[in-house]
Write a sequence for this structure.
């Protein structure tokens, strides 16, 4: 099965907290199952699937899942033609002006090991001017004897070398997608 995929953002620049609609259009030359994976970096505040159609008709996928970091959709066989997936992403309220959120998607026909990269819009930029870099010497006061006085620096900003922070390392999306793909393949085989 030959396919192409294109992503279109309602806008490529949005304010913090704003929701943007994303449309992915997949063109198929023959009937096929579809595996669609879209990852976001950094994560959005919220992601929700709005609609899925095959040649204009709504359909329910075999499996769909969203998180702040991804959209996963696995279908049973759909008809040749156009599959349209519409989802909304919401920028975090504290997103920094000038920062970008990237989209990295791929589509493959029913478990094919050679996915097609989703073309089209690749980034969403947070509107506004990035904050100017503060000159670090402005924050510290120099006493008459030439030493630096950090007494105006809040306690939570002063470094304490004796404290250590535990770091939680989360697994990447790839192993999760691989497990889900395995489950989908088992379900597909059982339904045939």
């Amino acid at each position: 099965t030959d396919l192409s995929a294109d992503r279109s953002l309602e806008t490529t620049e949005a304010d913090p907290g704003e929701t943007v609609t994303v449309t992915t259009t997949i063109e198929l030359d023959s009937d096929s199952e579809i595996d669609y994976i879209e990852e976001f970096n950094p994560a959005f505040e919220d992601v929700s699937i709005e609609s899925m159609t095959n040649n204009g008709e709504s359909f329910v996928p075999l499996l769909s899942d969203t998180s702040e970091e991804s959209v996963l959709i696995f279908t049973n066989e759909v008809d040749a033609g156009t599959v349209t997936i519409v989802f909304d992403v919401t920028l975090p309220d504290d997103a920094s002006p000038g920062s970008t959120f990237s989209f990295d998607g791929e589509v493959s026909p029913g478990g094919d090991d050679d996915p097609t990269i989703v073309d089209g819009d690749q980034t969403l930029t947070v509107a506004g001017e990035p904050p100017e870099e503060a000159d670090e010497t402005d924050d510290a006061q120099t006493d008459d004897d030439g030493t630096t006085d950090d007494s105006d620096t809040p306690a939570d900003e002063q470094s304490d070398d004796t404290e250590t922070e535990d770091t939680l390392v989360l697994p990447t999306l790839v192993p999760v997608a691989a497990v889900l793909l395995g489950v989908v393949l088992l379900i597909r085989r059982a339904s045939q």
Remarks:
- Confidence is low (pLDDT under 50) at residues 134-140, 153-174.
- DSSP finds two helices and 15 strands in the chain.
